[in-house]
Structures are given as C-alpha cells and as structure tokens.
Design goal:
single chain; 285 residues; alpha+beta; Immunoglobulin-like; C8orf32 fold; 2 domains; four-stranded antiparallel beta sheet; 6 helices; 13 strands; globular
Length: 285
C-alpha cells in the first residue's frame, strides 16, 4: 500500500513571538516494514536556522529557530510511503512470555541489549503492582508471548473508553488505570506500563492511521505499542483499535514514551495566549 500523508500544526498567538526554538519528530522512519519515498517539511515563517539530526533511538529530528517577530507559526510535513502487507505470526508459535523476559534481562548481545532498554521506567511510564496485576490476567504461566499480548490489547480495548476530554499529555498513567478513560497515547502508555511491570520490553510508537471512519484516532497523530519477541522481532499492538498494525499504520518515531517522540515541541519568547490547530490526513496513493 502506498500512502500520502500530511500533518499540519498551526500556532496562533495573541501577541507577537520574538524568538522561538523548536524541534519536530515528523519524518517517517525507514525500517523493514516501511519504505519512505518522499518527505518534505514546510515552516512558515521561514526559519533563520534549520538542521536535521538523528536522536538516540534513530529517529529523524528537525530543529529550527525563528528570530523575527511573528503571530503565527505553521509546520507542515508531507510524505509518501510504501507499507507492504506482511504476514502476521501465529500466536501459538511464539515462545512463552517468561522466555522473552529472561532474554531481555540478559542483554548479552546487540538484540537483547536493545530490548533491555525498554523494560525500565521512563518519564511518563511508571512500573507498579497495579499494572503488573492487570497484565497478569493475560500473562498466565507458560502462555505464548503473542497470545498473551493480544489478550491484553483486547482487554484494554473493551474495558477502557476512548474519551478526548478525559486526559491531557501530562495525565499520569496511574490515573488512566483508575478511570479507564483516555486517548491513544494513554492506552499505549498503560499497555507499556503493564508489559514493563511484568519485566517485558515495550516501546512507544508514534505515527498516523489511514484516514477513515472505522479508525479511532486517525484525525491526529496516533500512538501504539511495540514489544520484542525473540525469533519474531518487534511486534506492534494498537490497543485503541484492537489490531496489530500492518498496512494502515504509518510509523514516524519510537522511544520509551511520548516524551521521547513528541511531534512538535519548543520554547517561545512572548506570544501571550495561543491557539493550536492540528490536522492529519493519510490517503492511499
């Protein structure tokens, strides 16, 4: 599947901003399940300085600075990607989840070292008994890793309510467990907390969904979860839509949690009150 995606973020200020320094995670990742064919970023007003780099996790980051007064800032990312349909593994063929946990703890080769980095707490994901207890219902002794993870994903989908008014980007994951309300970011953080509390590696994935009425969260940046399984690599789970991402999820970046891959963040001098408008569109080519 070939997709064209556009992501536009506009900041409108009540007073002029004299200086702003901003970084964005907006360029899609290049990996075995996704080929990036085109990408561009348009910034208005035009930056005085702009540079690209890779962050610790290998994500592409664009940094820019604007030193001229402005009352609006618009950042538009456009891309064309190819998402080949891949065959998903049969759950019963994956190893017991305890084997996955043991290998991640060993960290004695490059692959297990990479997964080991994602078993610990991070700024927005804590580890605790409440998350472990919730996850343990799915992760029964000896259960295949993929079978257990799919069950956890399904339980979050059925027991939690998607509610855009329930949380903000700073809502603690403990509150998500208590209220069982939130958005894709919250559900991803919660599933990661459950997996890590059981000693399993899990990372946060930021991206887009194909636009359409059947997809929850396609109107803006989307988030899902990836966990490592020996012999099968990193497997993705979208608890918001109760699916394993395949040919309709476009990956932008991954890290420990949202704070590592925030689409747009920065500092500005001045501005007064601000209004933010975000739009995302992903359509087949």
């Amino acid at each position: 599947m070939f997709y064209r995606a556009s992501h536009s973020t506009t900041y409108m200020y009540s007073q002029p901003v004299s200086i702003c320094h901003t970084e964005v995670h907006l360029e899609p990742r290049k990996h075995w399940r996704q080929t990036l064919l085109e990408h561009s970023i348009e910034i208005l007003p035009e930056p005085d300085f702009q540079v690209n780099r890779k962050d610790y996790f290998g994500n592409e980051v664009t940094y820019f600075a604007i030193h001229a007064p402005h009352t609006a800032l618009t950042i538009t990312s456009r891309c064309l990607v190819n998402l080949p349909i891949s065959e998903l593994p049969h759950p019963s063929l994956t190893p017991p989840w305890e084997t996955v946990k043991a290998q991640a703890l060993e960290a004695d080769d490059e692959t297990s070292f990479e997964s080991n980095q994602f078993i610990y707490e991070s700024p927005l994901v804590t580890i605790g008994a409440g998350f472990a207890n919730y996850g343990a219902v799915s992760f029964q002794p000896g259960r295949p890793m993929l079978e257990a993870a799919l069950d956890l994903q399904h339980r979050i989908f059925t027991e939690f309510k998607y509610d855009q008014r329930a949380t903000t980007v700073t809502t603690p994951v403990e509150e998500v467990l208590r209220t069982k309300h939130g958005v894709c970011q919250d559900f991803a953080h919660f599933m990661i907390a459950c997996l890590r509390s059981l000693g399993l590696p899990a990372r946060y994935v930021s991206g887009y969904l194909r636009s359409g009425k059947d997809s929850i969260g396609s109107e803006a940046s989307h988030a899902w979860v990836s966990t490592y399984c020996p012999g099968f690599g990193w497997l993705d789970f979208d608890p918001t839509n109760n699916v394993m991402p395949n040919d309709a999820h476009l990956t932008i970046a991954w890290g420990r949690d949202y704070s590592d891959v925030t689409p747009v963040r920065g500092v500005a001098l001045g501005g007064g009150e601000q209004i933010i408008d975000v739009s995302v569109k992903v359509v087949p080519e």
